[in-house]
Specification:
The chain is mostly helical and about 120 residues long. About 55% of the residues lie in helices and about 5% in strands. The protein is built from one helix and two strands, in the order E-E-H.
Length: about 120
């Protein structure tokens, strides 16, 4: 098949600061163009799109970029989980302390009342 010119609608601009493949762009070898397309096949000529670089140097760059992004995502998730876990503990702790104090206070007053009531009867 040959290029029909449909791919020019999906032509991608070169991203600043990152690589083309790292930003999700794909290359068609037949049309000789980088496109922003979700599928694996070129919308123009039907050939398979290249999603990874062929050069060893650029493969290493892409691999390093992907690993750095994964580590960053894991760190962000860990921070979110810590925030979520800390909030309920801080809320539950004061409630337990209040209920425990109220029960002990009631128990002390009941015991004191029994002693007072028992003392006059014994005299």
């Amino acid at each position: 098949m040959t290029c029909k010119g449909i791919c020019t609608r999906y032509k991608a601009q070169k991203p600043v600061g990152t690589g083309r493949y790292a930003s999700g762009q794909k290359r068609c070898q037949i049309c000789e163009i980088f496109i922003k397309w979700e599928g694996l096949w070129c919308p123009c000529c039907g050939y398979r799109l290249r999603t990874k670089p062929r050069n060893l140097k650029y493969k290493a760059k892409l691999r390093a970029r992907v690993e750095a992004d994964q580590l960053e995502a894991v760190a962000v998730k860990a921070a979110e989980v810590e925030e979520i876990e800390l909030e309920p503990i801080a809320v539950k702790t004061p409630r337990k302390a209040k209920t425990a104090k109220a029960k002990t206070t009631k128990a002390k007053t009941v015991k004191a009342a029994k002693k007072v009531a028992v003392t006059p009867v014994a005299i």
